[in-house]
Amino acid sequence: MSGGDVKHDYHLVNPSPWPLIGSLAVLTLAIGTVTYMKGLFGMPAGTWAVMALGFAMVIWVMAGWWAQVVKEGRTGDHTPVVQIGLRYGMILFIASEVMFFVAWFWGFFEFSIFWDARTGHTWDSANPLFEEGLNRFKQWPPAGVTTFDPFHLPLMNTLVLLLSGTTVTWSHHALQHGDMKGAKLGLLITIVLGLAFTALQVLEYSHAGFAYDGTLYGSAFFMATGFHGAHVIIGTIFLTVCLIRMYAGNLTPKKHLGFEFAAWYWHFVDVVWLFLFAFVYVTPYLAFETGK
Amino acid sequence: MPMDEIALDHGHDAHDHKPGFVTRWFFSTNHKDIGTLYLVFAMIAGIVGYSLSGLIRWELAAPGIGPMLWIQTNFFGLEGDAAITAAKHFYNVVISYHGLVMIFFMVMPALIGGFGNWFVPLMIGAPDMAFPRMNNISFWLTVASFILACISMTVPGGPGGNGFGGGWTLYPPLSSASGHPGPAMDLLILSLHTAGIASILGAINFIVTILNMRAPGMTMHKMPLFAWSILVTAVLLLLALPVLAGALTMLLTDRNFGSQFFIANGGGDPVMFQHLFWFFGHPEVYIMILPAFGIISHIVSTFSKKPIFGYLGMAYAMVSIGVIGFVVWAHHMYTVGMNVDLKAYFVAATMVIAVPTGIKIFSWIATMWGGSIEFKVPMIWAIGFIFLFTIGGVTGVVLANAGIDHAVHDTYYVVAHFHYVLSLGAVFGLFAGWYYWFEKMFGVKYNTFLATLHFWLMFVGSNVLFFPQHFLGLQGMPRRYIDYYEGFSTWHYVSSVGYAITLLATVVFFVLLIEAAVRRRKATVDAHGHGNPWGEGATTLEWTLPSPPPFHQYNELPVVSGKGGH
Q: Could you tell me the end-to-end alpha-carbon distance of chain B, in angstroms, rounded to an integer?
């Protein structure tokens, strides 16, 4: 480490190129994304190569950086006080993720509760298209939208995700008691359930009675559930990495921070789903069915 | 993989291992070096943002469309109506990026990234930040974000030309595909996403450092107020920025993928963007001012040779400013057609903030009361801060009233108000901190005559600049307009003269930096062998270290005794 007589347990990390490369990766990804969407620096819209390069760089940095963290954890840098810090860090990261979902729920609530405030005025517009548009949104869900029946696939998905929450806890308990076989089995089932959720969500999307683009309901629905879905996929990858590390003998009954964080993240994803299920699927459906 | 480990350069001083140049400044995991990087970056971005404000004052010095038209004619070869349209758009671009650059790339990197990184670990007795490597990506992402913003200025934006010209608040439909169809706005969205990621990671780092790495004996209630201010700031960043990220993502998908969040034709609601934006935006203004509060507390205490008056009250005043800051956002939106009950709530909630802010102002005065005051350079900046921030705070109470706000919304009165709290508040706090810690950070002394001259030129200049804007606003001069009728010309001219004075102040500032770098006067070493130029009033832990501190401080953690940390 720093040389000299270090008489504390904090982790003084060695200089690392990853942050600089990571920032270049994000820069490339951002410029590539705008190039793809709009065209930039003489490249026409639809050029995906820069974006793909940026994305690959981001993945490379994440893999390299976290591999380094795992290595440090296994060579004794993660002392008890450092572990506490890492735990705080993960909790705070999840807190910021919660606030990200607040924005999407805020949008959904605003659209579903205050539609009459937006459309209740009497307008003196000569444009018939305007009138038509206004009338479409004088109800929620807007005219022409057929919502999902929450008690078919969405309920199934809820059960799948809740079950995966219990299997990850099973795996955790097994790991704490040194039962590596149970830990691996529980985690494997969790991952399979996570994949099942994603597959069911894809199936559900393909039967949607509304489009993503051009409709407010579609925008609010697909972005909220879509971001949740993205988090499920990230969580599944996180859990898969833990399974691989379990087979590699990386995770011990005493020390398995990566696994704990993956489990926390998984529970967070689970709770977000419960809110989505209650407020995005069930409540509008009931209001729609009963005529509000 | 060879990239994984970069061996430290072990050749030099046995006590103070500094890595080689590239490793030290590009791959850094040292909170002091990263703090310095942030300060240098903020200075560069500050020059950009300050130049943009120069263009604004140049244009507004006289009625009519002048300098902006001249630029379009001479640099872009436009003529006639095309040149006038382009000049108007260019002006809008200038004011938009002035705001964004100053907020995201000057004030925040300097106060939080710069001083926060430098002094939170030193003050709480920690050897470094909790996550030193993540600390570095916060910095480099800020650079990436700034590069994206700069590119965004130069690529097609609105129908009038390059860049985004809808103001730093990015309201749709100005920021929608209909307002600014070009890639400039998309780059700006991704720039702010990147800045947001950087700030969230930084916030996590600060909170963990403060909660987990205080020296033995330093309880939360003994922690220096600057660390408290950064803690509250970091919590605000952590909770507010993701909401902005959500709003920006909605904007991005509205623009590019056909979603309808803010598009009225598709049933969406442009006002909802304003809600989401200000739910972030109002905490954001406290994010900018709270670290300055922390700095001022230390300076006032040091140069009054007294502990800060009402330490706990000061700490919890900041906490309550942070909490209340989350429930007042719609006072930025009184004129959108909000109902009266809602306005009444937001007026009342906003007024409540005057209470903890008053606690801070009165406690600073009470600290000075009966103290043995020395008017050293940081202290005059701090007193300047208190005076100017109070003016900004008082006009804030005026603006909090929805009734009055209907008359002065989007006028120069608002511009004057937020420049008094930010340009003359946060920036004076920033310079106060700069002159308070300069010797500690760089190990050399600055010329006090130049520093005092800098203060007086800045104090006079920025007051001449911004005070007349109150008059302009009350007379009805709207903000974000390139032109005005002749009745406003006198005060606009005076305001631009004020800018010229601050320009002189800025020149003095850079002369001061060069002078200090050339002369290299050795930093003070006091009777205890500590690098403390300020005497008995400076009680926090950073003053027990040499100036500059060793590459890694506190290899043996300091133990804080029963006495208060401050």
A: 46
Q: Rounded mean pLDDT of chain B? A: 92
The string of DSSP letters for B163-176 reads: S--STTTT-TTTTS
The C-alpha atoms of residue A11 and residue A27 are separated, in whole angstroms, by 29
Give backbone dihedrals phi and psi of B156, rounded to 5 degrees, phi first.
Answer: -55, 135
User: What are the tens digits of pLDDT across the range B18-69?
Assistant: 888 999 999 999 999 999 999 999 999 999 999 999 999 999 999 999 899 9
Of A88, A98, A214, the CB nearest to B208: A88
**By three-state DSSP, how is residue B214 classified?**
coil
How many beta-carbon pairs below 8 A join chains A and B?
A: 252
Q: Which residues in chain B (290-349) have CB-CB distances under 8 A to chain A? A: none
pLDDT tens digit sequence for A205-262: 998 888 887 788 889 999 999 999 999 999 999 999 999 999 998 899 988 999 999 9
Which residue of chain B comes nearest to A110, CA vs CA?
B272
**Residues B187-231 pLDDT 10s:** 999 999 999 999 999 999 999 999 999 999 999 999 999 999 999
Q: In sequence order, what DSSP letters do the residues of A5-62 get, joined into one string?
A: ---S----PPP-SHHHHHHHHHHHHHHHHHHHHH-BTTBPTT--HHHHHHHHHHHHHH
Contact B551 A2 (CB under 8 A): yes
Handedness of CA B407, B409, B415, B416 (dihedral sign): positive
- Mean pLDDT over A157-181 rounds to 95
Give the C-alpha separation, B424 to B259, whole Å: 41
ipTM (interface pTM): 0.93
Candidates A6, A13, A68; nearest CB to B555: A6
Q: Are B83 and B73 in contact (CB under 8 A)?
A: yes
Tell me the residue type at A46: G
**Closest partner CB to A2 (pick from B208, B257, B552):** B552
Tell me whether B190 touches chain A (CB under 8 Å): yes
**Contact call for B555 and A39, based on CB within 8 A:** no
Residue B253 in contact with partner chain A when CB distance is under 8 A: yes
Q: Which two tokens stand for residue B13?
A: 């001083």
Q: 3-class DSSP state for residue B45?
A: helix
In whole angstroms, give the CA distance from residue B226 to residue B319: 13
Rounded to 5 degrees, φ, ψ at A146 are -105, 115
